[in-house]
């Protein structure tokens, strides 16, 4: 650490690793490069070129896919003449009867509502920034919640769950994929890409700069 | 990233770091002026919360294994399977890979998580064999892997909504579905309450 860092605490260049509290003066790495904590390896800064626009595009894609994936038939099952098809929405409502209702709400939240809410919050924060405007009111709260909800967004786990479910009933019935299945598979890729492009530090810094004007 | 040889922490410098947006502030400030998150140098009190969530999670895990997860009704029979029972059944059909996924997601990960979180919480109070680096890796792993235990709950949700073919075959959730989901959620809360910065506070041995 250089001596200059000693005086100004509010100096924006001083950052600490959230995992181990190691103190650094931030130097923005070039696009595609990453700055990691020297002690624990946590990624601190990882800017990408055109990241804001890409994240916005992916968030919009995600919301459209999620709409389709939720309401179109997801899987179809056939047993000796009987058939039934189910959407993600139906899966979320599987527990709606009786004492299982809270579970239904939780499943709906984990696989649909929270991922959509995160995309919405990220759009709310990033769209003005990408257009070089001042952030909308409450943008910091919105981004804080987007970050906070991250561990509870479980769409990718749901997809693995589908694979397991298919094997479980393969000897009981014939199963066909509906259009929503492929939408959901694409959705997982989109969510993963979006998280890869999103650099927290860059966004916080952008929000900060605007707020002080 | 510029820094000098021995790692200096924000706390050493009399600063408090925001874990949400990484900015630092003078010790004593209560909220981050940039992102509005509450500032605490070390969430020492949170250890109580870690233990509380962990115990509730463990308690919920017991009925999750005793009661049936799925109730399958076909024309001729009704079958109730627990988590372990369901996995063994799948293995009998020859799908060892899927059986392994279920066993790992529903048994190995939850129990491993209980042990790992308990160990990490205890390790803050006494000298332990594992270095700070190893314990931090363990924490990151626990945080990453915990969500994957939800697989079995989703499987139950999918099956119960899909297999509803009047009298021919139907699948309904059993009581274990809800206690298992609660167990996963509570242990995730436990891991999220843990402050990993405390892992690094012990004087580091030179080998690390």
Keywords summarizing the entry:
heterodimer, A: 213 residues, Rubrerythrin, domain 2, Butyryl-CoA Dehydrogenase, subunit A, domain 3, 2 domains, two-stranded antiparallel ribbon, B: 208 residues, 6 helices, 6 strands, elongated, disordered C terminus
State the assembly state of the protein chains.
Answer: heterodimer
Roughly how many Å is the radius of gyration of chain A? 22 Å
Task: List SSEs of chain A in N-to-C order.
Answer: EEEEHEEHHHHEHH
Distance between the termini of chain B: 21 Å
How many domain units of chain B? 2
Spatially, the strands of the biggest sheet of chain A line up as 6-5-7
Share of helix of chain A, binned: 40-55%
Query: What coarse outline of chain A follows from CA principal-axis ratios?
Result: elongated
Number of strands of chain A: 7
Note the overall shape of chain B.
elongated
Mean pLDDT of chain A: 82
Please tally the helical runs of chain A, counting DSSP H or I stretches of 4 or more residues.
7
Biggest sheet details of chain A? 3 strands, antiparallel
The number of distinct structural domains of chain A comes to 2
The CATH topology of the largest domain in chain A turns out to be: Butyryl-CoA Dehydrogenase, subunit A, domain 3
Q: Helical content of chain B, roughly?
A: 40-55%
Unreliable segments of 5+ consecutive residues of chain B: 204-208
Span from first to last CA of chain A? 29 Å
Question: Can you tell me the CATH class of the largest domain in chain B?
Answer: Mainly Alpha
For the largest interface, the chains and their residue counts are: A-B, 78 and 74 residues
Q: What Rg of chain B do the Cα atoms give?
A: 22 Å
């Amino acid at each position: 650490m250089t001596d200059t860092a000693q005086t100004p605490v509010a100096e924006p260049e001083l950052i600490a690793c959230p995992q181990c509290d190691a103190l650094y003066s931030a130097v923005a790495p070039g696009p595609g490069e990453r700055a990691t904590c020297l002690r624990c390896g946590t990624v601190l800064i990882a800017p990408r070129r055109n990241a804001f626009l890409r994240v916005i595009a992916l968030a919009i894609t995600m919301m459209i896919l999620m709409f389709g994936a939720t309401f179109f038939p997801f899987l179809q099952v056939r047993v000796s003449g009987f058939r039934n098809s189910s959407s993600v929405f139906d899966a979320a409502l599987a527990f709606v009867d009786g004492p299982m209702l809270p579970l239904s709400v939780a499943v709906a939240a984990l696989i649909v509502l929270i991922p959509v809410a995160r995309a919405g919050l990220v759009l709310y924060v990033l769209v003005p920034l990408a257009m070089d405007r001042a952030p909308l009111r409450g943008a910091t709260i919105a981004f804080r919640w987007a970050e906070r909800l991250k561990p509870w967004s479980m769409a990718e786990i749901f997809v693995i769950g589908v694979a397991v479910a298919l094997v479980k009933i393969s000897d009981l019935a014939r199963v066909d994929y509906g259009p929503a299945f492929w939408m959901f598979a694409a959705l997982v890729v989109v969510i993963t890409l979006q998280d890869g492009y999103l650099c927290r530090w860059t966004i916080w810094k952008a929000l900060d700069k605007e707020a002080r004007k | 990233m510029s820094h000098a040889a021995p790692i200096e922490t924000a706390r050493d410098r009399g600063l408090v770091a925001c874990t949400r947006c990484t900015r630092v502030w003078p010790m004593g400030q209560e909220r981050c002026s940039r992102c509005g998150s509450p500032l605490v140098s070390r969430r020492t009190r949170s250890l109580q919360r870690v233990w509380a969530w962990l115990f509730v999670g463990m308690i919920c895990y017991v009925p999750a294994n005793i009661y049936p997860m799925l109730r399958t009704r076909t024309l001729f029979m009704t079958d109730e399977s627990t988590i372990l029972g369901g996995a063994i059944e799948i293995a009998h059909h020859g799908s060892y890979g899927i059986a392994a996924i279920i066993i790992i997601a529903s048994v190995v990960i939850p129990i491993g998580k209980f042990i790992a979180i308990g160990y990490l919480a205890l390790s803050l109070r006494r000298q332990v064999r594992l270095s700070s680096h190893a314990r931090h890796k363990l924490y990151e792993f626990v945080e990453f892997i915990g969500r994957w235990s939800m697989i079995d709950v989703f499987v139950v949700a999918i099956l119960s909504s899909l297999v509803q073919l009047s009298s021919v075959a139907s699948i309904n959730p059993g009581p274990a579905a809800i206690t298992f989901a609660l167990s996963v959620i509570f242990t995730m809360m436990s891991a999220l309450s843990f402050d990993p910065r405390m892992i690094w506070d012990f004087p580091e041995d030179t080998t690390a």
